Amino acid sequence: MANEFDASKFTASSAKPLPVVLLLDTSASMTGEKIESLNDAARRMVGTFTKEESQANEFLVSIVTFGGSAELISPPTCASELVFNDFGAKGGTPLGAAIDVAKALIEDKVQTPSRAYRPLVVLVSDGVPTDSWEDRLETFIQDGRSAKCDRMALGIGPEACGGQGRATLERFIAGTGHQVFEAEDAAEIHTFFKFVTMSVVSRTLSQNPNLVPADDTLVPPSSTATTPNSGSEHRSQPDLAADEGEDSYW
Prior knowledge:
Distance between the termini: 46 Å
Oligomer: single chain
CATH topology: Rossmann fold
Shape: globular
Order of helices and strands: EHEEHEHEHHEH
Number of strands: 6
CATH superfamily: von Willebrand factor, type A domain
Structural class: alpha/beta
Number of domains: 1
Strand content: 15-25%
CATH architecture: 3-Layer(aba) Sandwich
């Protein structure tokens, strides 16, 4: 008698997620053209991720805003399922609280599964934090699963691109191989998000999506953003060898 067909032995493999966590400054100073451009740029990025999702890969997008308080606007959600709602601008700039929210997301193995690729955390701000952030950022960079994340940052306007604002963004991306991107006006927010999109999508098309391409290997639209010198390599995690298997990252 022939063996009966056992459907349980033929399960389709689910897509492997690449988490992208957006830390977006929605303080009162972002009111007007800046918040409008930020909303539009983030929405367009999610749209591109949706088009690029496949049976093998998906983009797990989280959105944390910090304006008056830190809020998880969108928990980790597949780009194709994310409903994007515009956010407004109000209050101060509690970056430290936003880092705490991002840390909790990444350490949670349900929201950021162990099978996921290396997450990218993106910080966008136009000013100086109004809460305690230094120790929280150090913990994020040094301890736990969050220490293995890639990090990119955009400073909008003169306050974020100079003085304490610049120093904060520099500290956020320290050790990643990236440099702080600058937007002198709101229109250049789109350029940064296009660059982030290219970096993330190119990872899913590579042999090892855990490896992050150097900024100067990508060709973004015309921008005032500063990129590393030619020939630079990404060195944020020296313990992550190029020939490591994709399941060995975490």
